[in-house]
Specification:
By secondary structure, the chain is an all-alpha fold. The chain has 19 helices and no strands. It has one domain: Growth Hormone, Chain: A (Up-down Bundle), CATH 1.20.1250. Helix content is 79%, strand content 0%.
């Protein structure tokens, strides 16, 4: 692995901070979209099937391009400047959020347009994170990678803690202005808005362009490849690069077990995420109604408490640094706890208990992901990481769209709590079995992996 540049960790910290703002803005947008769907487009309880379909459609629109353009994105970032790729991706995402904002202000936004814009943003994200995930390994010393991975995981938790409450407050501003709580010209302008969701999305637009601009001032190295030309001087094809990532993993079958474990997790976990708004709106409604909450407040509290758990997990792995050996147990133990928490979430009728259980569930995610990322970063050469990580993402997240689609159906016709509990129970059984999987338990043995590649 190439030695990182001087002040490389400081550069990573700046990128981490600016990208965290962008993630925070995106969280505002997705919360605003959820509220808009649940309270504006499909506000009636008898519209549960339509709301479930819309939530699933938005989730699929974001997930599908991230999964299935990942091989293209991975090959691209191994051939091109990774900093420019991140800047371009942030710019495209900012422009799509701007269009979403304008359509919402004009009152012409519909589900089809929303799905299209989210699809474009998902594709831009695929290229952004392919570049980002393979850039900081060039900036951070090898021994600091688990800590950096933990910090990356805290981005999502930090945004999740603040964004739901802030988004709910921003969305409520027009209604507050009409009641006279916002004085002056600002209050008069806000009162003319029928919906506060565009205000939250406007902040998202600003954060995307800020993140892109910050990258202009930073040096982010890209690895120099020695294999872009064949022996006779001809340039290797882009599609050969796409294929190479798959071949690398296929020849090291133990890595497939690691990916498959996450594929199962991505069948159960994201399925729960799709159903959470329905869980709050239907299963937990008696509890939060008795407490005097609105749906927006209950959902914001639910999401914020979940993100507190994610932050705790991220801070823990960042300060601890994770396991230095047998990191596979740093994946399996959190996965079992995550699955158990999901099962209990589906069975709980109380808002506070469900939020606490979701906090436990989310606290495990940074820990498992950081250990997994550290394994991949130390097993795969930097010049191959874009292609290999892309294939890893395709396989590991291929069940995400399937789970999203299935939850759109099951959430519309069955009790969302029961569906969440069943998914969690099945995931628990599968993860416990992996403690007895000799192939998975040897995933950190590089000599074992290399021997597999030679034999294959």
């Amino acid at each position: 692995m190439t030695n990182p540049p001087k002040n490389g960790f400081r550069t990573f910290l700046i990128i981490w901070a600016t990208q965290a703002l962008s993630v925070f803005g995106s969280a505002l947008t997705f919360f605003a979209i959820t509220i808009w769907l649940a309270q504006t487009l499909y506000p009636n309880p008898n519209q549960q099937p339509q709301l479930a379909f819309a939530l699933a459609a938005v989730g699929l629109a974001f997930a599908l391009p991230q999964v299935f353009t990942a091989p293209l994105a991975g090959a691209w970032v191994d051939r091109h400047d990774r900093k420019r790729t991140m800047m371009l991706s942030d710019t495209v995402s900012g422009l799509t959020s701007l269009v979403l904002l304008l359509l919402m202000l004009a009152g012409t936004l519909n589900l089809a347009a929303l799905v299209l814009l989210i699809f474009i943003q998902g594709a831009a994200n695929a290229f952004h994170y392919a570049a980002f995930d393979t850039s900081y390994v060039m900036l951070v010393p090898k021994e600091q990678l688990p800590r950096a991975n933990g910090m990356m995981q805290t981005i999502w938790a930090l945004s999740g803690i603040l964004s739901p409450a802030l988004a709910a407050s921003i969305i409520a501003l027009p209604a507050l202005a009409r009641q006279g709580f916002v004085p002056g010209e600002l209050g008069a302008s806000l009162a003319r808005l029928s919906d506060g969701a565009p205000l939250a999305i406007a902040l998202d637009v600003v954060t995307f362009f800020f993140a892109a601009g910050a990258l202009l001032l930073l040096h982010v190295p890209s690895p120099q490849r020695a294999d872009l030309h064949t022996g006779n001087g001809a340039k290797t094809s882009f599609w050969a690069d796409v294929r190479e990532g798959g071949v690398y993993i296929w020849r090291r079958r133990t890595l497939l077990w690691l990916i498959g474990t996450f594929a199962v997790g991505n069948l159960a976990g994201p399925g729960m995420v799709v159903l959470l708004p329905l869980l709050v709106k239907l299963n937990l409604a008696p509890d939060w109604t008795a407490r005097g909450f609105s749906f927006e407040t209950a959902l914001a509290l639910f999401n914020s408490m979940a993100s507190v758990g994610g932050l705790i997990g991220g801070v823990l792995i960042s300060s601890w640094g994770g396991l230095k050996q047998r990191r596979v147990y740093g994946i399996l133990v959190p996965m079992v706890l995550c699955a158990l928490g999901q099962t209990l979430i589906g069975l709980s009728p109380w808002l506070y208990l469900s939020a606490a259980l979701l906090a436990l569930n989310q606290a495990m995610i940074p820990i498992m992901n950081s250990h997994s990322q550290a394994i991949w970063q130390t097993q795969v050469p930097p010049e191959l990481q874009g292609r290999v990580f892309a294939v890893r993402r395709v396989i590991g997240q291929s069940t995400y769209p399937l789970a999203t689609a299935l939850m759109g159906f099951f959430g519309g016709w069955f009790n969302p709590g029961s569906v969440i509990a069943v998914l969690g129970g099945l995931m628990t059984i599968f993860m416990l079995l992996q403690f007895f999987n000799p192939w998975l338990l040897r995933v950190e043995d590089k000599e074992w992996l290399d021997r597999q590649a030679v034999v294959t």
